[in-house]
Amino acid sequence: MKSGFVSLIGRPNAGKSTLLNRLVGTKLAIVSDKPQTTRNRILGVRNYPDAQVVFLDTPGIHRPLHRMNVRMVDAAVDTMHEVDILGVVVDVTEPPGKGDRYVLDLVKNVKDVKAAVFLILNKVDLIKKNRLLPLIQQYNSLGTFAEIVPVSAATGDNVDRLERAIIDRLPEGEPMYPADYLTDQPERFFAAEIVREKLLQFTHAEIPFSSAVVIDRFEDAATSSSGYAERDGAKASARGGGAPREKEKGILKLYCTIVVDRESQKPIVVGRGGEMIKRIGTAAREELEKFFDTRVFLDLHVRVKAEWREDEHVLSDIGLK
């Protein structure tokens, strides 16, 4: 039996979150076409017949402009010391750029990193095969890799080869988590992320980068006649849809705040006659009901908090302490 940790690192929009979801077999990380979608380290456990692999999705590594971005990059760098394998994910639709070089230099220069470094060439479904070898040669000139594996996280192409290469490199060891364990993030984290995913989907320009979602109240119907009980620490289950519930228990009630940076951004998120926030809320509620497998009441409102990306209280609320 083998077991170990694998961190997925890379510049923003390389496809790390899509790859995590593919590897663990369920959607743990939200995805969008906006850079810096992932803001937190997300752990996902996958059990194989001969191994347990703990995958870590990380925020895209970039040059930080705000305290929030510093925390994001720190979360990614910190995983380098914790893992057996570093999977550097790159987007093969573009040649190696400054961002890729920055990541590879960071991997080489961070002290006490003993992990094997895999180069994961993602999005191979979007390029012609004859472009792959020149790209591999370019990356070989930028670093030394234990394995170079081309994959498509979107289609699953060659991901089985990546999984086999990972298992072959992991040390012998007993599983670190129970067989039904999926992640260490609480349910309210996933609720906030689902709302934020829809916010990213429907808004553009600066809004995705200067907004956050905070769960003010997370209430699940109690089995007794006393009404509703606050749920805070429950972890998502291995079935990929939150903690199991009996539908007769009632409605999950979520009260959320969308935090924006400037007054001018609030009417954009709300929309004319509340049209935009209704659109975000409807799409989020539908996905929340699938995730939690129960009916959901979702209340959204927008609050302006200037310079929130520098504010310790807001950063703590979104898991970036």
What is the topology?
Blueprint lengths: L1 E8 L6 H9 L17 E7 L2 E7 L9 H13 L5 E7 L6 H12 L6 E7 L9 H9 L6 E4 L8 H11 L11 E6 H16 L8 E11 L6 E3 L4 E3 L13 E10 L5 H5 L4 H18 L2 E10 L7 H6 L4
Parallel strand pairs: 1-3, 1-4, 4-5, 5-6, 11-12
Antiparallel strand pairs: 2-3, 7-10, 8-9, 8-11
Helix pairs in contact: 6-8
Report helical residue fraction: 25-40%
Q: Name the beta content range.
A: 25-35%
CATH topology of the largest domain: Rossmann fold
Spans of at least 5 consecutive residues whose pLDDT stays below 50 are 222-248
Major β-sheet, in short? 6 strands, mixed
Q: What is the CATH top level name of the largest domain?
A: Alpha Beta
Q: Kindly give the count of domains.
A: 2
What does this structure look like?
The protein is an alpha/beta fold. The protein folds into two domains: 2-179, Rossmann fold (3-Layer(aba) Sandwich); 183-317, K homology (KH) domain (GMP Synthetase, Chain A, domain 3, 2-Layer Sandwich). Helices cover 31% and strands 26% of the residues. It has helices at residues 16-24, 67-79, 98-109, 132-140, 159-169, 187-202, 266-270, 275-292, 312-317; strands at residues 2-9, 42-48, 51-57, 85-91, 116-122, 147-150, 181-186, 211-221, 228-230, 235-237, 251-260, 295-304. A six-stranded mixed β-sheet has the order 2-3-1-4-5-6, sandwiched between helices. A four-stranded mixed β-sheet has the order 9-8-11-12. A two-stranded antiparallel sheet has the order 7-10. β4, α3 and β5 form a beta-alpha-beta unit. α6 (187-202) packs antiparallel against α8 (275-292). The model is unreliable at 222-248 (pLDDT under 50).
